Structures are given as structure tokens and as C-alpha cells.
Amino acid sequence: MNKILGSLPIRDAISTSFLSKEWRYKWRSMSDLIFHRDSFSSSEEWEPSSFTRIYLSKVHRTLFLHRGDIRKFKFHSSGSEVINSEIDLWLDYLVVASVQQLCEHLEEDGTSLSTSDEFWNDQSNFSSSFDNLKHFDITNVHGSKSELRFIKYILGKAPLLEVSNIKIDWKTIAFGERKMGDILIQMLSFERISSTKVIIDKPESN
């Protein structure tokens, strides 16, 4: 049953609850949660603002109803900045769920991963860490303060991290080579509590 659920898109896996009593809520123990832009509905069916709100609420509800550990959490942004409070809650939940693989895919249009100042203030008084995280992958980073802080947080809270891939969307980085250099220096200076090598894509040469 778990193999079947794992082979289905998240929307179809959730829908198996309506098949029979035997299937009801079995999806809640799925080890892999993978969310794409069209996981729940097509972006063409809604206005951009409505689509983003619906998409994020469904991701949030899925996490809220999930039970047990999570092996892999993969999230594709919806084309606009992700709401602060959502990311805050997701990170707290993923720590509790002992996530092993964390993959964040941002859009190429400048979409930024955003977390609130309150979240970081709480972390200074709370020793939460990703004790089981082994794989971290983030794509289309745009160099925002919040994104860099998020990456620094993950690298400093994952003692078992083995793979860390950071792919920067250099086309969206303003202020040219100086800004690019600043971002690289910051990332390479982040403290790591594991022996993982941080792999950062180099800017394309002209």
C-alpha cells in the first residue's frame, strides 16, 4: 500500500482516502511529500494571487494532517513570495518529523523564500536542529537576506548532512560581479556542523 501511495502525485494519494475504509487516511503516513505548482490544481484555473493562496493552504493542511517521519520534503514555489508564517511553521514541523531530504525549488522570476524575523528570534532560544537531515538542495536562489539566512540556518543545524547543493539564479542578481562575489563569500563562510561540502553553481562566464 505504501509503495502505491509513494508512486502517486500527492493529490491522487490524498484522494485514495475515498476508495474504502481500508485506504482512509493511509496517505498521512507517506514518507515522501513532493509538492509541485500543479499538485492540486492547474495554475491556469485561477488568478495568480488566488492560486498562490490556495496552493500554500493545501501544502500547509497536508503537513498539518501528516503523521510520522518524513524522508523527503520537496517544495516548488508557486510563482510569488512564499508567506512568512507558512515557512516558519513548515520548518518547525519538518524538524519534528525528522526530515532526511529537504529540497526547495524557487522560481526563475525572482520569487524569494521568505521567513519572518520572529522565527529567527525564536531560534536563538530554542535548540531545534535537523538531526536526521542528510540531503539539502535549493534551486534558483536569488541572494535575498532571508534566503541566505535560511541556508546558513540549515547548514548550522544539520550534523549528519552529506549532500548540500545550492543553485543560484545568477541572472537575477543585481549589481553585477561585486554582488555575486559578496554572495559567494557569505555562503562559503557559513558555519557547518557536518563534514559536508557545499556545492555552489558558478556564474556563467560571458
Automatic annotation (TrEMBL):
InterPro entries linked to this entry: F-box_dom (IPR001810), FBD (IPR006566)
Chain coiled-coil ranges: none
Location of the FBD domain: 132-162
One Pfam family of this chain: FBD
Residue ranges of every copy of the F-box domain listed in the record: 2-31
Annotated transmembrane regions: none
Domain of life of the source: Eukaryota
Descriptive protein name: Uncharacterized protein
